[in-house]
Every structure is written in C-alpha cells, then in structure tokens.
Amino acid sequence: MAHPSQLGFQDAASPVMEELLHFHDHALMIVFLISTFVLYIIVAMVTTKLTNKFILDSQEIEIIWTLLPAIILILIALPSLRILYLMDEINDPHLTIKAMGHQWYWSYEYTDYEDLGFDSYMIPTQDLTPGQFRLLEADHRMVIPVESPIRVLISAEDVLHSWAVPSLGVKMDAVPGRLNQTAFIASRPGVFYGQCSEICGANHSFMPIVVEAVPLEHFENWSSLMLEDA
C-alpha cells in the first residue's frame, strides 16, 4: 500500500500493473531525454554568439525534426495500445464477483455461489484495532484466490462511484443502470487497499475497498464458512 512521501506507484500485485509500471518508466525516460535535449539547446542558444548559417535554412534539419517526433510518438503509442488491449482481455475467469456501489459502502455478490454476498462498510476510527489503517479498513473484505483470473462486474445503485485498487491496476466506474466489467489476477497473497475514485457525495472519502488474496485452499474454507453463516 502507499506510504507517506511516496513518489512512485504502489508495488504491483498483478501482471497488468507490472506492465503499467514498465510502461510508465519507458515513457518517463523518453520525456527525460527530450527535456534534457531541449534544455541543452536553450542553454547553447543563450550562451553562444555564433550562428550557423546552415541551420537557419536547411531542408535536411526540417525533415529530421518532423520525423523524429513522429518516431518517438510511435515508440510511446505501440506499448500503450498493447497494454490497453491487455487490460480489456477477459479469458475464462475462474470466479465472478459483482461489486455494487451505494452511498456510502460497497456490496459484493459471488455469482458462482448460490447465496454468498455481503455488504462492506468502513470501520470507524474508534473501532480500529492496532495495526489497522484509518479510512482504509472494511468490516468485510473481498476475498479472492491467488493466481486465478477474477472477473468483477461493477455497477451502482444510486450515484456514480468508481471501484479502484491501485496495486492490482484496476479502476472501473460504477454507473447506475449500467454493468461494467474488468478482470485481474492477483499474483501474490496479500491485502490490497483501494477507495472509491469518483466523487459521490458527503461520505465519498469513507468507501474503502479491501481485497484479500489467499491460496485457493484458504479461499474454499472461507467460502464454506460464509455459506454456513448465511
């Protein structure tokens, strides 16, 4: 999860997020090189009194500074499009979960089970136990098996919400009357935190999302207990 004074992204917990981190570094290096080159030209133009007459009117230089930006844009666009299609790819999910946004809590329904669903509310500050995070902990976590393709169907009951978990590289709007879907694979066990990312009213800041990735055997035990309690 994020920590104070953090400059970069959270550690990736899914293959898609790893790809996004690599693309971010790739694009940042291109921006850094362009900025350095432009700064060098500005400093050279300001500090020297010499003028090269071949630079003032040169067909070759005009061709270069037309083609070079086009090539750079292609180097950025191709990996970007690849990741865009990867994020939209949903192949044979092992588990489907419906996440419904409300003012101001989330409800989850495991559609592969007959009667497995619950509401997830933020734990108030006064009820937190040592080690829990303020404004991020929920009374019921969305538990998923690790290294399994998970499909999440996302909608809202009242106003616009957004289901976002940065570590998993997932962010999808929850729109009333519309069913959006996204997919991810948790590549390691852990607890991953997110929040509603669409301003949805007075308690918008109090809609945490907690995803707990566990081994398949632990997930089966958890689902059995939840079905017994239901």
UniProtKB/TrEMBL annotation:
Cellular localisation: Mitochondrion inner membrane
Ranges for domain Cytochrome oxidase subunit II copper A binding: 92-225
Cofactor dependence: Cu cation
GO annotation, cellular component aspect: mitochondrial inner membrane
Domain of life of the source: Eukaryota
Protein name: Cytochrome c oxidase subunit 2
TM region positions: 27-51, 63-85
Source organism (scientific name): Tropheus moorii (Blunthead cichlid)
SUPFAM superfamilies, alphabetized: Cupredoxins, Cytochrome c oxidase subunit II-like, transmembrane region
